[in-house]
Task: structure prediction
Amino acid sequence: MPTRAEIKAWRSLHRGKGRRETGCFLAEGRRLVGEMLEWPGRTVAVLHADAAGGEPALEVLLAHAVTRGVRTEAVPEAIIRTLADAATPQPILAIGEVPAYSWDDVGGGAIVLLDGVQDPGNVGTLVRTALALGAAAVIGVGEAADPWGPKALRASAGASFRGPVFRTDTRDAVERLAGRGIPIWVAAAGAPPLERPPSGSVALALGSEARGVSAPLLAAAHRVVSLPLARGVESLNVASAGAILLDRMLRRTPD
Result:
């Protein structure tokens, strides 16, 4: 049974401060726990409601956790509800160490910059979309929501475990991209529409719906692009706009 100190520490993972202090995150539900048990990072513990014992899907996950040497604990359902962030929690969750992704893990290809995108659902959706379409990394800058928060993780459907996903400051991002010779393309309403994909690697900067991309990134941009929209439509949700732009940017036509 987890100690009171552990439960208190794991409950704090709902907040950024708790994740920073412990270096851990909370993943909820069968799918996310299953994804965690496949990644090379460290899973600290897997907790499951004792009342759900015998459920085939849980038994498979728990057996896999045991083979990996991960601590597993059967706990009262009340503890699951205490720790879970979801309104209707599933009977299993896990605690993992936040991976120390950095620029050293970023390979060739498109990079997505989330500049001040504060809604964790949008952040998680963009992580899922970008990595599914073949982006090399998703990097939060400015006041972007933490991709390792529970809501963002749920929205990512486990994609965060399959690629470099981390945060840095705007200046670092601009300098690192310049050092690699990777141009920054900024998405902004009213800009010329994107008509063809880039010929090489590029960093696509997506800003918050309220403020758009920040001035420092705009100043460093090599190009500003948009999506052509039907008359009367002012804008799209950032996750929707980002998905369409990424699809068009990463699409390669035969030579």
